[in-house]
Amino acid sequence: MNIKEEAWQIGFYRKALEDRVSQQDHEPELWFDNHYDEAIRQALAFHAEGVYDLSVYRCEDGCPVDIEPIEDYIDEEVIA
């Protein structure tokens, strides 16, 4: 029996692409959470902070395997 460990990776940049100058500016910030709902909540909090190129990936055994369309949740938050 092969049980895969699932986690969620949140990635983003603090600066817009045109404002990234240093090597550090070009390195994304990555956050991980084992709970889907908490990962989405955290991604929405980062979105509210105004981060750039926000993405959420489902990971299995530490490897990204699928992207979660965070735009759907952002649109729902605006409507709610």
Description:
This protein is α+β, with helices and mostly antiparallel strands. Helices cover 30% and strands 35% of the residues. It has two helices and four strands; from the N terminus they run ββαββα. Strands 2-1-3-4 form a four-stranded antiparallel β-sheet, covered by helices on one side. It is globular, with a radius of gyration of 14 Å. The N and C termini lie far apart (42 Å). The mean pLDDT is 90.
Task: Kindly summarize this structure in a few lines.
It contains two helices and four strands; from the N terminus they run E-E-H-E-E-H. The protein is of the alpha+beta class. The mean pLDDT is 90.
The average pLDDT is 90
Regions with little confidence, pLDDT below 50 for 5+ residues: none
* Number of helices, where a helix is a run of at least 4 consecutive DSSP H or I residues: 2
SS class = alpha+beta
Q: What does the main sheet amount to?
A: 4 strands, antiparallel
Helices and strands, in order, run as EEHEEH
Q: Any idea what the shape is?
A: globular
Main sheet: strand order: 2-1-3-4
Helix content: 25-40%
Question: Strand tally, please?
Answer: 4
Strand content: 35-45%
Radius of gyration: 14 Å
Distance between the termini: 42 Å
